[in-house]
Write a structure and sequence with these properties.
The protein is of the alpha+beta class. The protein is 52% helix and 18% strand. The strands form four sheets. Strands 14, 15, 16, 17, 18, 19, 20, 21, 22 and 23 form a ten-stranded mixed β-sheet that branches. Strands 5, 6, 7, 8, 9, 10 and 11 form a seven-stranded mixed β-sheet that branches. Helix 11 crosses helix 12. It is elongated, with a radius of gyration of 33 Å. The protein starts with a helix and ends with a helix. Keywords: Cell membrane, Membrane, Transmembrane, Transmembrane helix. Its main location: membrane. It is found in: Cell membrane.
């Protein structure tokens, strides 16, 4: 068998090169996304920036836990929250009495805007916890003084306007310093007032006579439910400006990895199956010469193992070159922190290599199993003619995947825009697998439909060749199907869902004017109150987005939420199916969409963004909507003290003169925008983000499938040397042969395009029908330009990858070419 394998490798080197290329690039794609995704976790040692001089740092909890089961089956799942809980006000005094404590520093961090620039305000006492150099002036000695971090053009004695959560105030610059941590420093009293009493962390300084862990143990003995941190763990109590970007990167790369896995498995399995199917004559001859089915399977699996190992190693090595540029692009596009890069991590490489090798063996085994079942007496006939191209397995699994795609498409709109978008790829993958499995049934119908204009001898031969070799046509059309199908389905469904969500958001707003903050501090409550007191203003309602966590039975699931002020039903259209939105006030109520499954009057357990557990009574159940899908509406009063103190993100104003509203909002650090301008700005940013996200998700996968198209066509054309020689010997000129090959290649491309178009059209039509329950007259949005470019590129690759190897093959004389062994 080893000798036979070596002879086969020499005789059919093009097939082995094709499978090697497909697997190598597939493993590279998996490893690249895996390395980049793994690099978002951890990131190596993180030394403290805010608290290097503190021996121990005490911080509030930053996680929620859900326990399920009992006894030995008891399992606790934890999830890190958006913010940390505030520390008790009496805790600093209690910690100061502990033995070994020589210093207690109360740290507070407040988002502010200093003359239009976002910054973090902190108490001056915390500045001593980290290295700094005073460039000019000195510490703040009055509550209206501030120390700025350079570089700045301000000098001591200058006045600066600071917008905080309690409004705008003018401060006098008392000093300027330089430090690794940019911040503005106020007196401890002014910082406490600005933070509303919230304590973010407490830094403890010991005597230095004992290890920090000994002091930490004493702190733990006197506190419960708090984080007591030493060493590099102190960094977890610090603000992490990269956390949101890393979370977005991880989410995006999770989707990218899922798509990469799908296309890699699809292409690699198909390529190996095609390569084995090309050798049916060999297996037929082996069977007639006495080889057992087990020997045939061992031969194929041994070859697949060798190619799989070599290609997996090469693919992992290649990923070391592709992962860093991909990570750099993510950082440059705003999807990752500026310094984000892909690091060498062993387990993603091992996982990618393992998946590649497993898929190669499975693809080869399935094809070899069929070849090994051929009876010796039928071997030659089976090897030369396509018979029974649809096996029972293809029928069963093809129909199952088709039904699964239809069911998922039917329920997608009910899941809302967020979850629906996440499932678009899954639904497209199910439909494409179904189309690939059922392709042998559909191909003859498609070819007869699209090939009717072909005339002449070469046209007839091209049509007959594609119809006769259905397996070859299906195998070569599969990469085209997945390339165009994924692109068209995802692009059309994404744009359609986003447009429907934007329409829903536009129809919801009934306010006449919107006030938005100029910076990160938000619009302060005093400004909101002043807006509500303007002549003619019927309502001024502040809102701020957040997130909450709900026990789904085994895990604390994250849901979007929004803090809203009283009178929200006067500025937003909120159709209710039970209860009244007027009852949404206080600190123990909530309004939810019907898709949450909660009943009016029910008391629910919810964790806020800082991990605080609250019990809320459902006072209103809202009709399902795309823009507020599974969003909890929380009373504005509940948000006070939970998370960093910030103002409103948007204030919806109903009535009043636009000039008066603009004057009051401007004085409070905000600006006035119309409803159309507000939505247009959000839509423009959303479209930019969506476009870049789609490039990240689809880019490498489509590049890989494009290469797979060329690879498969080269394999198919290289295997037809004797066919080309036969045509030449019967009198066909090289131009006629190339014309026939080109026409057949275009037929294959059209088959893949039509199948992909059917999948995309079915998804789009089903999605549009489902959206009718949520949006009046939903609009189907198809981005024809990018889809058309992808189709044209696929057809061009198909044509070139067929003609070039055929032209090279015909450089050999027809008589010699006819003697090439199958």
């Amino acid at each position: 068998m080893l000798t036979l394998s070596w002879q086969t490798l020499r005789a059919r080197w093009s097939a082995f090169v094709g499978t090697f290329v497909a697997l190598c690039l597939g493993v590279c794609l998996l490893a690249t996304t895996g390395l980049t995704l793994a690099s978002t976790i951890g990131g190596g040692p993180r030394t403290p920036l805010w608290y290097p001089a503190a021996d121990v740092v005490v911080a509030g909890t930053n996680s929620v836990a859900v326990t399920s089961g009992s006894g030995e089956d008891r399992v606790t799942e934890r999830r890190v929250t958006l913010a940390s809980a505030s520390l008790p006000a009496e805790l600093p005094a209690r910690l100061a009495e502990l033995p070994g404590v020589t210093g207690v520093v109360v740290d507070r961090r407040i988002p502010v805007d200093v003359e239009g620039t976002a910054a973090t305000a902190a108490p001056w006492s915390s500045a001593g916890l980290r290295p700094y150099t005073l460039l000019a002036g000195g510490a703040p000695t009055a509550n209206d003084q501030v120390v700025l971090t350079g570089p700045t053009d301000r000098v001591p004695g200058d006045h600066v306007r600071l917008h905080g959560p309690d409004g705008a105030r003018t401060f006098t610059v008392s000093g300027v310093l330089t430090a690794d941590v940019p911040a503005v420093y106020l007196t401890d009293e002014a910082a406490a007032e600005l933070a509303g009493g919230r304590i973010d962390a407490i830094a403890l300084v010991g005597t230095g006579a004992e290890p920090a862990r000994a002091l930490a143990e004493r702190v733990r003995a006197t506190t419960t439910g708090l984080r007591v941190l030493t060493g590099d763990a102190r960094r977890t109590a610090e603000p992490n400006p990269d956390s949101d970007a890393l979370a977005m990167t991880a989410s995006l790369l999770g989707t990218t990895a899922g798509l990469a896995g799908f296309v890699s498995i699809f292409v690699v399995a198909g390529t190996f199956s095609f390569a084995v199917a090309q050798r049916r004559r060999e297996f037929a001859l082996l069977r007639t010469s006495g080889a057992t089915p087990r020997q045939v399977r061992r031969l194929v699996l041994g070859e697949a193992m060798v190619v799989g190992v070599l290609a997996s190693v090469a693919g992992c090595g290649l990923s070391a070159l592709t992962a860093p540029p991909f990570a750099h692009w993510l950082a440059g596009s705003g999807f990752a922190p500026e310094n984000f890069t892909a690091r060498f991590i062993l387990w993603p490489l091992l996982a990618a290599a393992g998946v590649g090798l497993l898929v190669a063996l499975l693809g080869a085994w399935v094809a070899a199993r069929r070849a090994a079942r051929v009876r010796p007496i039928e071997a030659l006939r089976e090897a030369s003619v396509d018979q029974r191209t649809m096996t029972p397995g293809r029928w069963v699994f093809g129909l199952l995947f088709l039904v699964g795609a239809a069911v998922l498409l039917a329920v997608m709109p009910a899941l809302g825009a967020t979850d629906g978008l996440a499932l678009i790829l899954v639904d497209a993958q199910l439909a494409l697998i179904a189309a690939a499995l059922l392709a042998p049934v559909l191909i003859p119908v498609i070819i007869r439909a699209v090939a009717w204009p072909l005339r002449g001898c070469m046209g007839t031969l091209a049509r007959s060749g594609a119809l006769t070799a259905v397996r070859r046509t299906a195998a070569t059309a599969a990469p085209i199907l997945v390339t165009i199908g994924i692109a068209a389905s995802v692009l059309a469904a994404t744009e359609t869902l986003r447009r429907a969500e934007q329409t829903s958001a536009r129809d919801r707003i009934s306010a006449t004017t919107l006030a938005v903050p100029a910076g990160a501090a938000g619009i302060a409550d005093p400004t909101v109150a002043a807006l509500g007191q303007l002549p003619g203003v019927r309502a001024a309602v502040p809102t701020r987005t957040t997130e909450v966590y709900v026990n789904d039975g085994t895990y604390p699931e994250e849901f979007p939420a929004m803090y809203v002020g009283t009178g929200v039903d006067r500025v937003l259209r909120l159709p209710t199916v039970a209860g009244s939105i007027d009852d949404l006030h206080g600190t123990d109520t909530v309004a939810v969409s019907r898709s949450m499954g909660w009943r009016h009057g029910q008391t629910v357990r919810v964790w806020l963004a800082d991990g605080t557990e609250v019990r809320l009574r459902v006072v209103a159940v809202l009709a399902d909507a795309l823009d507020l899908d599974r969003t909890l509406l929380l009373p504005w009063q509940l948000g006070a003290g939970h998370g960093p103190r910030t103002g409103a993100e948007v204030v919806y104003v109903d009535g009043g003169a636009a000039a008066d509203v603009a004057l009051v909002a401007g004085g409070g650090g905000g600006r006035v925008v119309g409803v159309r301008e507000y939505l247009s700005a959000g839509i423009a940013e959303q479209e930019r983000t969506n476009r870049l996200a789609l490039i990240a998700v689809l880019g490498m996968a489509l590049l890989y499938t494009g290469i797979a198209i060329a690879n498969t066509l080269v394999m198919a054309t290289a295997d037809r040397s004797r066919d080309l020689a036969t045509l030449r010997l019967t009198g066909a000129t090289p131009g006629q042969v190339l014309r026939m090959i080109g026409l057949e290649a275009l037929l294959v491309g059209l088959v893949g395009t039509v199948l992909a178009g059917a999948v995309a059209a079915g998804m789009s039509a089903g999605l549009r029908a489902g959206l009718a329950d949520f949006v009046s007259q939903p609009q189907l949005v198809v981005p024809w330009a990018p889809i058309g470019l992808i189709v044209a590129a696929c057809l061009a690759v198909t044509l070139v990858a067929s003609l070039v190897p055929a032209a090279l093959a015909m450089r050999t004389s027809a008589a010699r070419l006819a003697g090439v062994r199958d």
